[in-house]
Inverse folding.
């Protein structure tokens, strides 16, 4: 076993292959976006909800990727150095998400009951929350969240790219200390984003674990996105000898762990509310445990936990690109379903009313973010070539 | 491999200092147990024993007189008993974190600390068990918790947090004990092989279960260790989760909060890490273990304390903001009462010790200066005790009904038991460091660079053992087990296996003081079958628990409690999970013993002249006489050709 192995293949994407990919994705985004926008006036309220669900989905994947980047820097995990640039690329849509959030701000009245000041101040139970839940404060906080994410992503990316040129090991330390502060910032903002964007649909309902619930989902989403990106890059013919089955195996183990973590957090929230049986709290689950919403609840239990759990339990699944990719894609589908299950009952409490709008907005934002990730992959080497730990990371073997 | 036993970069110091080899590590760690007890140990033991006795007397007084001798009252029906219970269960969590969670994350540095932290877990869980048992009041009715068909046809209420607690703490105590003992088996082998007195040899021999550190042993051993680590990780999370359920499933303001499960688990790990620092900082100096538990270990632990402190602070903050955001007047009152009521000083002590002081660990100087980190860690212990006191008492003492408000003041019995808990913790702990290796020897050895069979430049090239002429071959004299030879190191041993197998030998086994990476492939061993037993145990435990709870709640004694349906699957989940883990752990350990044919106290290989070194620094190989290729005349020469020395025949 070599303790170190150097890069044996090109790590910079050739422009003539990747540029069309980014452009095609962008064109697709424009196309689906145009269709979605043209349908807006026909169903403005549903459109706003579809848009928000899709936006939170893509943002949570990028925030999840950013969180992984921070955690891997903090723990000094050498094995993951080869994956670092891909995580940076996955986080790169974050500054753009701020722009994508503007339509949400413009449609607050369609989305959130508290946006109607007259209504909230007339309700004695909610009147005092108007200090927190009002359009101005909401927008200002959202701006703060996006700024934090963009700054943390930008700082880490900057340092990482500089290291490509200079190979200066001081960057390792710099990125690690930035990650210490960055983790605090991203942890707090993403948790408050969950309170603001998701929990406040029912302004009466509160659950202190909700921020952790969003973390858990985002970490699963970010990880699954990373696995898929690795497989896409492999399929395009790059990094096949740099990111090996050993790395996939480790990503599979992490996905296994965090699928369990999500289930643990989701169960804790449900169990405590079910057991204590306070009307204010159970209301949220009563809606989701009736009729077709209950079907979706059970689908989440199996789709977001049981199926990936059993698939990832076996070692061959974690090492096989096909099966790992399958579980990652599956987990992303159910991560979306989870957000749908959290958000959409606010629109149609009696039963889910899926429309093609949900899909068209989802595709629009996926294509758009995909184009940004592709562009990021195109501009820089796909692995941090200046990091002295890279050879050790490439040679990494699971024992 | 993320092997950190040597530094990948010049800036990072190595984990283990002092240029240790296999033999010097054995001497260092086993020497602690074999030498006479130093004076400080006797002083500490007498003090701990005195406090232990005090605790014993207090316990006897409480049980014989009743818990009225405590300062509890209505509305404060839980106070020091539950505070101490949660405190001690929490301390235990760091042991499992270090031994299981860090193992799964391939943090090899943990091997210097895990044994010690596991012992800490055991004795902390024992303390927790004491407090939760005596808090029942009539302890002689404790058996009501056991789901056995009783003469009264009454079954435990499985929808009650008390039943979950019983399952969780009992499972945790059992699995932690197994995990600890399991890790000790190879080290008991080392002590057995070094023992000079007959008595020592006999006792450690029994405890080692006939461990002979063969390649096949290690193969199943490592597989079961991985299974145990994989089981202990969710188990440790579940234990404090269930402890948090004791509070969070209630409708008491300040207790019912959905963040409680992860917040309690994190707080438990935080307090346990602080206890590890509190104990190891003085002990590493007193026991001369500064080469194994280095400043780098301590610094890493301090970073973990800082991280868990930040997560804990997040928990405090979310609780507060949610109390405000919920608009619930009771919820808000609890928090203003905590911050400005009669127990405000407890609340602010908690904040100062758990939130403010750990921030000192941002400074490298504090993280690397033993007395400074020791001081912070002691404060964290205090702060975490106060956290539990604040949660338990301040939520109760001013409840929904202002006319029943009251105060809790501890009596001398409360204080005596609080102290007694520390005696109950410290006394067995001191015995542990006297009689059991306090560092996981085989694991530390496996983390040395020269333990890697691909390691080439050995820093301290030990002189090869002097060539001893082969024992005169006389296989006709009696039944012969086979031939044995000694090899210089892991690399030579692995090469010899490959060479001898190429010659057609099949019944080969190797013996080494630690598992050699890759030798199971050379020996041609397939994947270990241990995981199948683990899975079977888990499936059995889960089905059994689900059947038991369903039968007793829905058929045997159907009674609506707490407005819950008779067959409440949700409420059965905690015990389902605990029982599943318990039986899966039994399955793993049982499989290791079964597949390795242990316990088996006698085996021909123990007749090897220098075989005692196999648990120290020796590497051996045997070929059994049953092997079709075995030839009493040629095999010794073949062994010598493969690099073996001290070739000999072993009688049955």
């Amino acid at each position: 076993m070599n303790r170190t192995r150097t890069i044996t293949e090109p790590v910079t994407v050739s422009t003539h292959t990747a540029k069309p990919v980014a452009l095609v994705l962008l064109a697709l985004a424009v196309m689906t976006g145009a269709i979605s926008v043209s349908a807006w006036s026909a169903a403005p309220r549903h459109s706003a909800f579809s848009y928000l669900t899709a936006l939170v989905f893509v943002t949570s994947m990028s925030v999840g990727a950013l969180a992984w980047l921070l955690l891997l820097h903090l723990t000094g995990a050498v094995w993951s150095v080869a994956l670092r640039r891909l995580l940076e690329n996955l986080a790169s849509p974050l500054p753009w998400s701020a722009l994508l959030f503007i339509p949400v701000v413009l449609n607050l009245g369609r989305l959130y009951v508290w946006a109607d000041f007259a209504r909230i101040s007339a309700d004695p139970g909610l009147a005092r929350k108007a200090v927190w839940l009002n359009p101005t404060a909401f927008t200002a906080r959202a701006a703060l969240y996006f700024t934090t994410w963009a700054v943390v992503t930008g700082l880490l990316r900057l340092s990482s790219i500089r290291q490509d040129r200079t190979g200066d090991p001081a960057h390792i330390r710099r990125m690690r200390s930035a990650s210490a502060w960055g983790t605090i910032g991203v942890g707090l903002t993403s948790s408050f984003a969950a309170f603001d964007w998701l929990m406040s649909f029912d302004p009466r309902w509160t659950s202190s674990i909700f921020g952790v619930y969003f973390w858990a989902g985002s970490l699963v989403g970010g990880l699954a996105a990373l696995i898929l990106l690795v497989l896409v890059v492999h399929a395009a013919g790059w990094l096949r000898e740099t990111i090996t089955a050993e790395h996939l195996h480790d990503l599979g183990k992490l996905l296994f762990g965090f699928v369990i973590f999500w289930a643990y957090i989701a169960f804790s929230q449900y169990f405590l509310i079910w057991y204590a049986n306070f009307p204010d709290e159970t209301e949220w689950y009563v809606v989701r445990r009736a009729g077709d919403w209950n079907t979706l609840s059970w689908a989440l239990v199996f789709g977001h936990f049981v199926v990936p759990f059993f698939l990832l339990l076996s070692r061959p699944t974690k090492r096989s690109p096909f099966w790992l990719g399958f579980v990652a894609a599956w987990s992303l589908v159910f991560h979306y379903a989870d957000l749908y299950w959290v958000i959409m009952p606010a629109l149609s409490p009696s039963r889910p009313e899926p429309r093609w709008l949900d899909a068209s907005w989802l595709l629009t934002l996926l294509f758009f973010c995909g184009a940004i990730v592709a562009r990021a992959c195109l501009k820089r080497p796909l692995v941090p070539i200046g990091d002295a730990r890279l050879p050790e990371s490439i040679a990494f073997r699971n024992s | 491999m993320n092997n950190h036993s040597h530094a990948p970069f010049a800036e990072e110091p190595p984990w283990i200092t002092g240029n240790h080899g296999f033999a010097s590590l054995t001497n260092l760690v086993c020497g602690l147990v074999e030498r006479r007890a130093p004076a400080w140990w006797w002083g500490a033991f007498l003090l701990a024993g005195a406090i232990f006795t005090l605790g014993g007397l207090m316990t006897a007084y409480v049980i014989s007189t009743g818990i009225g001798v405590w300062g509890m009252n209505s509305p404060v029906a839980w106070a020091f008993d539950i505070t101490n219970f949660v405190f001690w269960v929490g301390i235990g969590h760091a042991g499992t974190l270090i031994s299981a969670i860090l193992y799964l994350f391939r943090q090899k540095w943990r091997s210097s600390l895990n044994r010690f932290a596991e012992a800490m877990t055991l004795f902390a869980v024992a303390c927790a068990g004491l407090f939760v048992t005596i808090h029942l009041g009539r302890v002689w009715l404790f058996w009501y918790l056991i789901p056995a068909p009783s003469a009264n046809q009454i079954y435990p209420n499985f929808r009650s947090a008390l039943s979950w607690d019983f399952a969780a703490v009992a499972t945790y105590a059992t699995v932690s004990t197994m995990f600890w003992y399991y890790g000790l088996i190879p080290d008991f082998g080392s002590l057995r092989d070094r023992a000079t007195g007959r008595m020592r040899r006999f006792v450690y021999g029994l405890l080692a279960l006939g461990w002979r550190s063969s390649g096949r042993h290690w193969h199943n051993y490592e597989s079961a260790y991985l299974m145990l680590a994989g089981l202990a990780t969710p188990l440790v999370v579940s234990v404090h989760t269930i402890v948090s359920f004791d509070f969070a499933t209630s409708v008491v303001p300040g207790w019912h909060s959905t963040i409680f499960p992860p917040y309690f688990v994190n707080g438990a790990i935080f307090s346990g890490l602080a206890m590890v620092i509190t104990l190891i900082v003085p002990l590493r100096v007193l026991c001369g273990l500064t080469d194994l538990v280095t400043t780098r270990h301590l610094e890493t632990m301090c970073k973990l304390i800082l991280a868990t402190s930040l997560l804990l602070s997040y928990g405090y903050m979310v609780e507060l903001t949610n109390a405000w955001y919920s608009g619930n007047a009771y919820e808000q009152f609890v928090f203003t009462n905590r911050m400005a009521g009669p127990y405000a000083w407890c609340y602010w002590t908690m904040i100062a010790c758990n939130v403010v002081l750990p921030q000192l660990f941002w400074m490298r100087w504090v993280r690397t200066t033993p007395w400074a980190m020791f001081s912070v860690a002691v404060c964290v212990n205090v702060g975490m005790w106060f956290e539990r006191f604040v949660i338990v008492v301040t939520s109760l003492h001013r409840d929904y009904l202002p006319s029943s408000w009251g105060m809790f003041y501890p009596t001398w019995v409360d204080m005596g038991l609080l102290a007694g808990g520390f005696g109950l913790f410290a006394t067995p702990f001191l015995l542990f460091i006297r009689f059991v290796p306090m560092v996981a020897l085989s694991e530390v050895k496996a983390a040395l660079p020269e333990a890697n069979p691909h390691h080439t430049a050995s820093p301290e090239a030990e002189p090869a053992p002097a060539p001893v002429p082969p024992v005169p071959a006389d296989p006709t004299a009696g039944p012969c087990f086979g031939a044995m030879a000694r090899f210089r190191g892991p690399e030579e041993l692995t090469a010899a296996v490959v060479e001898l197998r190429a010659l057609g030998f099949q019944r080969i086994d190797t013996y080494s003081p630690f598992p050699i990476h890759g030798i199971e492939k050379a020996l041609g061993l397939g994947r270990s079958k241990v995981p199948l037993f683990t899975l079977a145990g888990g499936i059995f435990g889960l089905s059994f628990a689900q059947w038991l709870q369903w039968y007793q709640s829905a058929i045997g004694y159907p009674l609506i409690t707490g407005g819950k349906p008779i067959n409440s699957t949700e409420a059965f989940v905690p015990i389902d999970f605990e029982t599943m883990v318990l039986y899966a752990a039994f399955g793993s350990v049982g499989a290791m013993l079964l597949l390795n044919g242990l316990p088996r106290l006698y085996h021909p290989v123990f007749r090897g002249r220098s075989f005692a070194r196999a648990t120290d620094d020796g590497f051996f190989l045997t070929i059994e006489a049953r092997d079709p290729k075995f030839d009493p005349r040629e095999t010794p020469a073949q062994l010598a050709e493969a690099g073996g020395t001290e070739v000999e025949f072993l009688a049955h």
In short: Chain A has one domain: 15-394.
